[in-house]
Design goal:
The structure holds two protein chains of two kinds.
Chain A: E1 2-3, H1 31-44, E2 53-54, H2 60-65, E3 71-75, E4 81-84, H3 94-111
Parallel strand pairs in A: 1-2
Antiparallel strand pairs in A: 3-4
Chain B: H1 2-22, H2 39-47, E1 55-56, H3 67-70, E2 77-78, H4 94-107, E3 115-116, H5 118-128, E4 140-142, H6 143-153, H7 163-169, H8 174-182, E5 189-191, H9 192-203, E6 208-209, H10 225-228, E7 240-243, E8 249-251, E9 261-266
Antiparallel strand pairs in B: 1-2, 3-6, 4-5, 7-8
Helix pairs in contact in B: 4-8
Classes of the chains: A alpha+beta, B alpha+beta.
Chain lengths: 112, 269
């Protein structure tokens, strides 16, 4: 997982966390704050078995991949983008990623 | 040696206990601590240094410019009144525009085809909303007219039953969300000219699509900025980022030649 800028921080232009049962999170302004929220996220959503990286406060990875608010990619063994999911939330489709992974593994096995 | 080790362990334990007692639950910065599920209570607990039960702009020591977003009534203080009900996405925000599109698609379609034009929207309003209840048919959509008919007009949008869409859409008031984007003169109703301005501003006056994207669309067509971002078949943009525990860094390109890498971008909210 690549943990990026909050999609719906309390003090954002599209806030959540007011009467809707969503987590109450102010938009982190330091790397330590973002990392702290990410740790809670990984624990609360039971994602801890998954390796997680924190995007820097310049949102480098987020911008490079057009990732906000959420998005799925697969990078092939050749280092190229093998699959690029649609922008979330509507385009966030784990089933598509699964198919892309299977296709990439088939391709790699055929190449070996 | 054993006595020294025991003393060191005891000292460390005591120091840890002192650290725990002195640490405020708000020391973990930007997130409400466990058990605090009220946004106003969280902000007061964190910023109300003079103990008056309110948060003034002077007390709000966070990033400048954000206070105004929280102070929804603009009185210069964060009070319970600022947090009554759900916050509506700000005018012009991506979330507000997107949610408005889906609400318009739900309630103002005549043809269930995941595309909505201004003409179709207004034809639906004049046919099924304007003049309903005890209101006059005057070419203006009022909240009363919307409320008395919209559930009966609720259309079907492919994908609207997904947990993700329900998470974002269902807790919000459709009238409030749309009005924030459309009701430019803030007179509590919506007119054709205001809907036209919405279409003109964000869709060049053209019909917009909503619901899941057409899977047959070629993402590399035209001037789509998103299509130019990390396109399929091109070298993946490289990055070096730190793990969540802060102990190590990883560079994406180091995995090339070894194994595929799935990237799942997201956040807690």
């Amino acid at each position: 997982m690549v943990y990026i800028r909050e999609a719906h921080a309390l003090d954002s232009r599209a806030p959540m966390g007011i009467g809707d049962g969503m987590p109450i999170v102010e938009d982190p302004v330091t790397f330590q704050e973002r990392s702290g929220v990410a740790q809670v996220c990984m624990t609360k959503l039971a994602l801890e078995p998954m390796p997680a990286l924190i995007d820097d406060m310049d949102d480098t990875a987020n911008l490079a991949y057009g990732a906000a608010p959420d998005r799925l990619y697969l990078i092939g063994t050749d280092g190229n983008v093998a699959f690029k999911g649609g922008p979330g939330p509507g385009g966030f489709d784990p089933g598509e990623l699964e198919q892309a992974i299977l296709a990439e593994l088939d391709r790699r096995n055929e190449a070996d | 040696m054993q006595n020294h080790a025991l003393l060191s362990a005891t000292t460390l334990t005591l120091l840890a206990c002192v650290a725990c007692r002195s640490a405020s639950p708000y020391d973990r910065a930007s997130m409400a601590p466990e058990g605090v599920d009220d946004a106003f209570a969280y902000l007061v607990g964190k910023y109300d240094t003079d103990g008056d039960g309110l948060v003034s702009q002077a007390e709000y020591t966070r990033a400048s410019g954000r206070f105004g977003r929280l102070d929804s009534d603009g009185d210069g203080f964060l009070t319970p009144d600022d947090f009554q009900g759900l916050q509506v996405p700000e005018r012009g925000s991506g979330m507000g525009i997107g949610m408005s599109q889906r609400f318009m698609g739900r309630y103002f379609q005549l043809e269930q085809d995941a595309t909505l034009s201004l003409d179709e929207l207004w034809d639906c309003i004049t046919t099924h909303y304007d003049g309903k209840g005890d209101t006059p048919a005057d070419g203006v959509l009022t909240q009363e007219e919307f409320a008395c008919t919209h559930e009966g007009r609720r259309g079907t949008i492919r994908g609207d039953d997904s947990p993700m869409v329900q998470k974002f859409m269902d807790p919000h008031d459709p009238w409030a969300v749309m009005a924030a984007q459309v009701d430019l003169d803030q007179d509590a109703d919506m007119e054709r000219d205001e809907f036209a301005a919405f279409f003109d501003t964000y869709f060049d006056g053209e019909p917009f699509d909503f619901g899941p994207k057409d899977e047959s669309a070629d993402a590399t067509d035209g001037d789509d900025e998103d299509a130019r971002t990390a396109p399929v078949g091109q070298r993946a943009p490289d990055f070096t980022l730190t793990t969540v525990d802060g102990r190590t860094t990883h560079t994406l390109s180091t995995f090339a030649g070894d194994r595929p890498v799935a990237l799942i971008f997201g956040s807690y909210t």
